[in-house]
């Protein structure tokens, strides 16, 4: 983990409130695992807490990385108003990242994402494909209007879509797609990132699979495990006092390791 003033090379809006921002700097050399995140300082003196945003793509040859974020408050709104040539104070990469070493060439992975949980799955899928893993994507959005990155995922591998209102892909959530898919086959590993309800569904559907990896979303403060603001309880804890920290022990956990 390092801290660096990185330079913005481009920013574009992908959908309402969804932005893709590319940064360049030496910090890219530290980025290895898909699913890690950056802790970015808002460039305004009165906003002290950094914003955790997952890494969407890593390009070491160009020394660039890409993040995709949704504007939720003043901090991310300020990010959205920046342009090429502006700089950001970035800390990272943070978090453990997805385990891609549990699979070998020829095996199959399900990659499942919902809403703003989708971005880190793109770098994950790229790395799985490089290892010779067969990947199937299941992506869910609220509607066609807020869907993004469809073509990028489709260019990598088989991609299936669902929207809450049925305006794009299958109507409903990604659970409908998954239940249909597992009638034909079972994956060797499952990777998921999205809302807590979707992660619960994934954990339940694949409860017999030991290789189910969930990326948890929690509000964070320090991002380094010091403040205990992002703890998650663990199973089989009769005292109710044991927990793990999402920022530095996660954000990715095996489904069997956490209580959702």
UniProtKB/TrEMBL annotation:
Cofactor: [2Fe-2S] cluster; FAD
Record bears the keyword Metal-binding: yes
GO molecular function, one term: electron transfer activity
The entry's keywords: 2Fe-2S, Electron transport, FAD, Flavoprotein, Iron, Iron-sulfur, Metal-binding, Pyrimidine biosynthesis, Transport
InterPro entries membership: Cyt_c3_hydrogenase_gsu, Dihydroorotate_DH_ele_sf, Dihydroorotate_DH_Fe-S-bd, Dihydroorotate_DHASE_ETsu, FAD-bd_FR_type, FNR_nucleotide-bd, OxRdtase_FAD/NAD-bd, PyrK_electron_transfer
Domain FAD-binding FR-type, residue spans: 1-100
Binding site for FAD: 51-54, 68-70, 75-76
Flavoprotein listed as a keyword: yes
UniProt pathway annotation: Pyrimidine metabolism; UMP biosynthesis via de novo pathway; orotate from (S)-dihydroorotate (NAD(+) route): step 1/1
GO annotation, biological process: 'de novo' UMP biosynthetic process
Co-factor: note: Binds 1 [2Fe-2S] cluster per subunit. Binds 1 FAD per subunit.
One Pfam match: DHODB_Fe-S_bind
Amino acids binding [2Fe-2S] cluster: 222, 227, 230, 247
Subunit structure: Heterotetramer of 2 PyrK and 2 PyrD type B subunits.
Family: Belongs to the PyrK family.
Protein name, per record: Dihydroorotate dehydrogenase B (NAD(+)), electron transfer subunit
Naturally occurring in which organism (per UniProt): Candidatus Enterococcus palustris
Encoding gene, per UniProt annotation: pyrK
